[in-house]
Amino acid sequence: MRLLLVEDERKVADIVARGLRAERFAVDIASDGPAGWDMAAHIDYDLIILDLMLPGFGGTELLRRLRQANKNAAVLVLTARDSTADKVENLEAGADDYLTKPFAFAELLARVKALMRRPSPNRTQVTRIADLELNRLTQQVRRAGKRIELTSKEYALLEYMASHPGRVLTRTMIIEHVWDESFEGLTNIVDVYVRHLREKVDVQHSLKLIRTIRGAGYCISDEEEGAP
């Protein structure tokens, strides 16, 4: 599941993102209204966690823009504004849920999972590449019908790659998306995890899905290597 967190309080954003990533969600962060709009306009997120008091323009304006643009991602408002008027305004603008600060992360997580269980035009439950299947709701992975056990980081990496089949993903892109910290000078951590995935996903199969693009990064593809 890919989430966008639009939050200008860095400490709150870091805590929420870290907790969600530990639950195997992929999380992007925007710190103001314009950045949130730019990211949400170009990427089909499964869910957006949205603060209301943002630099640039506020969360309510961003929410209206999303709905006017027919962006159907579920939206969870996370804000210190707790008046009934604020709740009504944003729910009528298209929010799916509303949680006030301060909050318990356990409640936030429960609400996120509840929203994820709702049918959404943006969300495909099963991603398939050749005979590899990822169930994004149960986070189960199978190849040729056989269950593959992955760690949380291995799953997050595989889901990120599978969400962009055929696209070359640089090590920096992978680190920024899968890990919640800067790993400058430690990009070999990606190589380590890709090797783990290959051992679990590809070793026993003639068609190798995980590819190294020399000098660029990695991609996942079901095309035979060397095919035009």
Describe the structure.
With 228 residues, the chain is an alpha/beta fold. The chain has eight helices and eleven strands.
Topology, element by element:
Layout: E1 2-6, H1 10-22, E2 26-30, H2 33-42, E3 47-50, H3 59-68, E4 74-79, H4 84-93, E5 97-100, H5 105-116, E6 126-129, E7 132-135, E8 140-143, E9 146-148, H6 152-162, H7 171-178, H8 188-201, E10 210-213, E11 217-220
Parallel strand pairs: 1-2, 1-3, 3-4, 4-5
Antiparallel strand pairs: 6-7, 7-8, 8-9, 10-11
Outline of the structure:
With 228 residues, this protein is an alpha/beta fold.
Strand adjacency order, main sheet: 2-1-3-4-5
Can you tell me the residue ranges where pLDDT is under 50 for at least 5 consecutive residues? Answer: none
Q: What is the approximate shape?
A: elongated
Q: What's the β-strand tally?
A: 11
- Global structural class: alpha/beta
Radius of gyration: 19 Å
Count of helices? 8
The end-to-end distance, rounded to whole angstroms, is 32 Å
Estimate what percentage of residues fall within beta strands: 15-25%
Biggest β-sheet description = 5 strands, parallel
Element-level helix/strand string:
EHEHEHEHEHEEEEHHHEE
- Fraction of residues in helices? 25-40%
Averaged pLDDT = 87
